[in-house]
Amino acid sequence: MAQAFLQLHNISFAFDKNKPEFFKELSVNFTDSTIHFIQGSNGVGKSTLFRILSGILHPQETLQGFITIGEQKIACANSITYSQAIRHYIKVVQQNIPTMLADQFTVKQNLQATLFEHYPTYHGLPQNLRYTDLLANFGILLDKPVAQLSGGQKQILAIIMVLQKEAPILLLDEPTSALDPKNTALVMEFLHALCTKHRLTILIINHDNEVIDAYAKQGYLELYVNSEGIRDLKINRVL
Amino acid sequence: MINTILIILEQTALFLPLVLGSYISMSLLKLPDLSIESAYVFGAILGAQTIVGFKMAPIGLTLILACVASLVGGALVGLTSSVISRVGQIPHLLASIITFGIFHGINQFVLQGSYLSLTGLRNPLELLPSLAQHPELIMLAIISLLLVASALTFFYTQLSYACAIVGNNAEFFRNYGISTNFIVIVGVMLGNALAGLSGYLFAQSNNFVEITIGYGKVLLCITALILGKALIARAKPITIAVPLLGTSAYFVLQQLLLKGGFNLKYFTAVQALLVLIFIIVLYRAQGRSLRGDQLGV
Question: Which phi and psi (to 5°) does residue A10 adopt?
Answer without folding.
Answer: 50, 50
